Amino acid sequence: MSALKIYTYAQCDTCRRAVKWLRARGLEFDERPIRETPPSAAELRTMLAAQGGNLRRLFNTSGRDYREQKLGEKLPALTEPAALALLAGNGNLVKRPFLIGPGVALVGFSEEAWATALAGK
């Protein structure tokens, strides 16, 4: 099993581009369906630290579940444990692709950022 884990949604073009990018570089990874198996609370905490503690960066703010739950209004008042519990319980709320591994924690896909973060892996 690879040390890199990528959480994706099959219908997400950005996720497909990220997976294609990883494969083109010969990087081994374990792909997981984000809706069925969201990132764990521990993985979310690691990602949160990598995002400078900005909870909003972990949320799929353009998603239907985010809008229906009115999280744009609620997020500023949520505690970190409550926000992470929401994310761990509903993969639709998590920004994707979500790539995590030793020394790597990336959300969203930017070729430049991923190339920098994965250099030498």
Question: How would you describe what is shown here?
Answer:
This protein is an alpha+beta fold and 121 residues long. It has a single domain, classed as Glutaredoxin (3-Layer(aba) Sandwich). Helices cover 40% and strands 13% of the residues. The protein has six helices and four strands; from the N terminus they run βαβααααββα. It has helices at residues 13-24, 41-50, 64-68, 71-74, 80-89, 111-118, and strands spanning 5-8, 30-33, 98-101, 104-107. The chain has a four-stranded mixed β-sheet, sandwiched between helices. Strand 3 (98-101) and strand 4 form a beta hairpin. The longest helix is centred in the first third of the chain and has 12 residues, at 13-24. The chain is globular. The protein starts with a strand and ends with a helix. The model has no long low-confidence stretch (mean pLDDT 95).
Keywords:
121 residues, alpha+beta, Glutaredoxin, 6 helices, 4 strands
Number of helices: 6
Order of strands in the sheet with most strands: 2-1-3-4
Radius of gyration: 14 Å
pLDDT < 50 runs, ≥5 residues: none
Number of strands: 4
Q: Can you identify the CATH superfamily?
A: Glutaredoxin
Enter the CATH topology name.
Glutaredoxin
Structural class: alpha+beta
**Helix and strand succession?**
EHEHHHHEEH
Helix content: 40-55%
